[in-house]
Amino acid sequence: MNRALSFHDLTLGYDRTPAVHRLDGEIAAGSLTAVVGPNGAGKSTLLKGVTGTLRPLGGRISYGPFTRRDVAYLPQQSDIDRSFPLTVADLVAMGLWRETGAFGRLRGAHRMRIAEAISAVGLTGFEARPIGSLSGGQMQRVLFARLLLQDAQLVLLDEPFSAIDARTMADLIGVVHRWHGEGRTVLAVSHDLDTVRAHFPQTLMLARELVAHGPTAQVLTAENRFRARQMCEACADPLHTCGRRAA
Amino acid sequence: MIWEAIGQPFADFGFMRRALLGCIAVSVGATPVGVFLMLRRMSLTGDAMACAILPGAAVGYLVAGLSLGAMTVGGLIAGMAVALLAGFVSRVTALREDASLAAFYLISLAVGVLIVSVRGSNVDLMHVLFGTVLALDDDTLVLLCSIASLSALTLAVLFRPLVLECADPQFLRSVSGLSAATHFTFLALVVLNLVGGFHALGTLMAVGIMILPAAAARFWAASIGALISVAIAVAVLSSVSGLLLSYHFSLPSGPAIILMAGAAYGMSLVLGPVGGLAVRASA
User: Fold this and answer.
1) Residue A174 counted as domain residue
2) What is the tens place of the pLDDT at every residue in B213-251?
3) HSE value, Cβ hemisphere, 13 Å, CA-based, for A86
4) Which of A75, A170, B90, B176 is in Cβ range 3.0-4.6 Å of B97 for a Cys bridge?
């Protein structure tokens, strides 16, 4: 099995408080994996660790055949300033950063790819609209178009389908499947288990520690979900020293 | 009649022409920086930095008297020190950047006022606080024009990272290591322009030509390029009208220029087509 990512005894957290504790596991290259778990299970923290913005408190992540530069990341709450005077095309074009860099020119081929990406998320005709005028679902489409242009081998999505309408969700899941078909590795946090069952072949269940990892049907059992909830409630107790030994 | 009111003062008096050139340089340099300050919701940071450069200028004055070079270098050092310290503290502690900036600029301002009032006269203090746009010598003009050119060039080179750093800093950090460098280069531009501006308009008024035209432009333009163009135009017009106002009515010129910029802001607020009061009311 080609590995895209391996977690080795990985502990991630903030201010020395672990949010992900002693995680071991591997994400196969080209796999489409959902990360599930109760609130506070460390799902988003895990993605931040993979992007490299959060340094591990312990253990490490190894990156298979590629580097952190091949990673594209869609945060759950992007801190995009929606009042900033940018158009849809401007924002999508930023996905080309790795090719144009800070100072490179946008060439004709780039402009065509920008138009293609915007059309792939169903926003043709919105190119010149200011981002401040978009609905939540439209904004999510714009961010997916930017991800498309990033052309990343490993795509990390944090709750990409929360708070958007059903049609947008169907279109964006289409984009995720397109990535999967192109052999890219996709890791998506989701709390919607129906979506996970329908669209994600692999699932990693997290409750600060690993609960289960494997084919979705084997992971999303009632027993695992119960166990995950119990582990998280135990960890929420401030006196509980989460895990087998202190971090 | 119109010529006498508007053209004659500049045609007759060299100091008016020099003041005009100085103000145009400050408009071209400082105003685009002000547009980015506004877009980053850092409008008040300009104020803080203006106060922060005071002790540096004062120490320069203490060492070398009313010397252009010493006061400029002193101001730059003090401004950058406060900007870097504030940035550093906010990155390594829990204190946010605005709070740490406020702390450092207040300390800096107190030190500055103390130095000026212990060692200088009230006239000197007024000079530093309110500038001397009607008495710009050659060296000062060269300095103002150099700062404007440097600032415009740097902004042009830095444009894309800066826009991204303002609009989506998380994304910039994920694709590039330029985030911190962009932020600090931008703060350096703020300091540089304020130091230039304080020779013309004084530390307190220099922020006005940076921020007021930018705020006025927000009511006329919706794209970044247009915002910068409108802001520069407003700044230049305020400079001309402010200088004339001060000439005809014997008013101090720095505050007159800033007041005209303030009037432009007030008019834009009411009449501006992009979210102005009149448009809102009729909608």
Assistant:
1) no
2) 999 999 999 899 999 999 999 999 999 999 999 999 998
3) 24
4) B90
CB burial of residue B146 (10 Å; 0-12, 13-18, 19+): middle
> In which residue are the tokens 């989701």 written?
A190
Collect all residues with Cβ–Cβ distance below 8 Å to A45 and sequence separation of at least 6.
Answer: A12, A13, A14, A19, A20, A54
Pairwise CB contact (< 8 Å): B171 & A94: yes
Q: Which chain B residues touch A if contact means CB-CB below 8 Å?
A: 39, 41, 157-158, 160-161, 163-164, 166-171, 173-176, 178, 222-224, 227
A112 belongs to a structural domain? no
Mark yes or no for CB contact B223/A103 under 8 Å: no
Contact A94/B at CB under 8 A: yes
Class at the top of the CATH hierarchy for domain B2-270: mainly alpha
Q: How far apart are the CA of A74 and the nearest CA of chain B, in angstroms?
A: 9
List strands edge to edge, sheet with A202-207. A71-74, A154-158, A185-189, A32-36, A202-207, A209-215
Q: For B72-104, give one letter per residue: b (16+ CB within 10 A) or e.
A: bbbbbbbbbbbbebbbebbeeeeeebeebbbbb
Residues B48 and B112: beta-carbon distance below 8 Å: no
Which residue type is seen at B78?
Answer: A
- Our CA-based measurement puts residue A86 at a distance from the nearest CA of chain B, in whole angstroms, of 7
ipTM for the complex?
A: 0.80
Structurally, how many domains does chain A consist of?
1
| Inside any domain, residue A29 | yes
A239 touches B: beta carbon within 8 Å: no
- Distance from C-alpha of B130 to C-alpha of B62, rounded to nearest angstrom: 18
Over the stretch A182-226, which tens digit does the pLDDT of each residue have? 999 999 999 899 999 999 999 999 998 999 999 999 999 999 999
* DSSP β-ladder status, A209-215 and A202-207: antiparallel
pLDDT of residue A4: 87
Are the Cβ atoms of A94 and B168 closer than 8 angstroms?
yes
Answer whether A102 touches B (CB < 8 Å). Answer: yes
In a domain, A24, yes or no: yes
pLDDT digits over A51-67, tens only?
888 889 999 999 888 77
Instruction: Count chain A–chain B contacts defined by CB atoms under 8 A.
Output: 55
Instruction: Indicate which CATH number applies to the domain containing A39.
Output: 3.40.50.300
Q: Which of A48, A35, A47 is nearest to A212 (CA)?
A: A35
- Nearest beta carbon to residue A79 from set B170, B178, B224: B170
Range of the domain at A24: 1-66+154-168+187-247
Nearest CA in chain A to B167: A81
Give me the half-sphere count of Cα atoms (radius 13 Å) on the Cβ side of residue B73: 10
Annotated domain spans of chain B: 2-270
Give B266→chain A minimum CA distance, Å. Answer: 22
